[in-house]
Amino acid sequence: MNYWDKIAGDFDAKRKFPWKECLDFIKDIDGKCLDLGCGGGRHLAAMKEKCFAVGADLSFSMLEIAKEKAGDAFLVCCDARNLPFLDETFDNALFIATLHNIEGREGRIKALRELRRVLKKEGKAIISVWAKWQDRFILHFIKKFLKKQGEHGDILVPWKKNGEEIMRFYHLYSMIEFKKELKESGFKIEKAWSVKKASKWLKDNHFAIVRKEN
Q1: Architecture in CATH of 3-211
Q2: Separation in Å, CA 175 to CA 27, 111, 132, 210
Q3: Model-level pTM?
């Protein structure tokens, strides 16, 4: 069992509501659409009203929660780095708050390229990651930069459950790094921006809308 299976119920309880950025994107989509890293399915309910919705996640426990919210969506348990879909299957996709949980830059690039592979030509996706320079982590990364230890942006974030501290891997991005990886993966960036979701001072999430040109 991976740690997402262990914390699925508690994690979902704190992520009940879909993000406006995703709802705005979903308003303009149709066809066959993928929610990659769908978690408990907070965006699947809206997606299934607009298109044939497929939710994919590494955690089976998360998918069980997603089924309760979007029962007629098609759900697949899989790794974002090795998607079990044919080339050019999907018209549009969401890849929200998931890329940053993949360890190693090579793995993250592979996941982005897999997403591009399964999108149709001119297909669009909205992608989000945690921002590196946010209130909660800025001092940590300043210290880590000075020590020059490991890949800058990597951090283990604890989740407490029943007295146990479960460590989750995150790679937090600067906007420059985020754009660089999107371009390296072959995407055309149509729009990129940052927002505050939980931070008081600094923006804590980066978003991008990308397109597969050819």
Answers
A1: 3-Layer(aba) Sandwich (3.40)
A2: 25, 18, 9, 14
A3: 0.95
